[in-house]
Amino acid sequence: MSEQIDFRWRYQPRKQMDVQLMEYIQDNQITSKTEMILLALRSFWLPYAIAGDSLTREQMRRVARASVQALRKQTKEILELAGLEDTCLEVQMQFTQLSPLKIANESGTTLQATSINELRTHAGNHAYDDTGLSNFL
Predict the structure, then answer these.
(1) Which 8-state DSSP code applies to residue 12?
(2) CA 78, 84, 89, 95 torsion: positive or negative?
(3) How far apart are CA 60 and CA 90, in angstroms?
(4) What pLDDT is attached to residue 109?
(5) CB count, 10 Å around CB of 6?
(6) Contact 75, 40 (CB under 8 A)
(7) Which ranges of the chain does DSSP label H, i.e. alpha helix?
(8) Rama region for 83: left / alpha / beta (φ>0; ψ in -120 to 50; rest)
């Protein structure tokens, strides 16, 4: 078991949608904010965080499957919430074309670096408001 760490994050959003998001997480009566944040982080980032570890291929696949399952469930709920059609096949085709595993293997770069750079590109190169951190230090 690895050592215990203390992780702190303070965020003072400035964009209205970020304010709404933080209020939703803060005020949720069903799930604690820690659980909500960890679910999102684990689903999205855990496979990248453990990619360099000495896990067996099956352990890595188990984590990846769990992440994909959580993200698919969330995708379905978001589509239903917004009244949108399930364009899963369309999205799947786009991600298949990206193929980070293939890119990483062919270029000799690490999976983590290639995948994160692709995600940053597709997420709008950090199109989020982090100015609330200016008073943190």
Answers:
(1) -
(2) negative
(3) 26
(4) 45
(5) 4
(6) no
(7) 16-27, 33-49, 57-82, 88-98, 100-107, 111-122
(8) left
Residues 6+ apart with CB under 8 A from 101: 111
User: Which pLDDT value is given to residue 85?
Assistant: 86
Mean pLDDT, 10 residues at a time, the chain of 137 residues:
86 96 95 94 94 89 95 93 78 60 46 56 54 45
pLDDT value, residue 29: 93
pLDDT, position 111: 46
Tell which residue, 49, 14, 43, has the closest CA to residue 128: 14
Rg, C-alpha atoms of the chain: 17
Residue-level pLDDT at 54: 84
Phi, psi of 44 (to 5 degrees): -90, -40
- SS3 label, residue 65: helix
Tokens of 9: 């994050």
